[in-house]
Amino acid sequence: MFDTMTLTKIVGGFCGALLVFLLTAWVATAMFTVGGDHGHGEDHAQAYVIETGAEEGGAAEEEGPAFEELYASADPEAGAKVFNKCKACHKIDGTNATGPHLDGVVERAVDSVEGFAYSGALEEHFEVWHPENLDIFIENPKSAAPGTKMSFAGIKKAQDRADLIAYLATLN
User: Residue 128 forms beta bridges with which residues?
Assistant: First the structure.
């Protein structure tokens, strides 16, 4: 059953498959290598630039009204609509969900809801949930308190944040 010719064909098949595998790996590495020296040297120019209208150098964006002004004229009813983004994780009836309940959160001490296991990252950055602190945190939770459990991306519009905080203040 296994004569010399059959054994030669089997070994040849394995060698051929290995050769194809090695050549494919070599070509893929040559085509898709990231980093390293690709013949550009230390300084090389970008091939083309896509103009986005943004100035280089990290110029400050146009700043709108201060948070205090927005908060003073905030609309709690509009904030109730913004709160719909929060309902997936937070409740306002005094019970905890994925996140702690938010009734009474304005002017409440950070990490103070009984029965909720906090990450501890908030205490390092905030002591009390003043409206200003809530504004900073709600804008981008991950950058305001690195290590927080809150996976929400944040609310970018300052007016929406002010309205939301005004709504939460009515729940005290």
Answer: 109
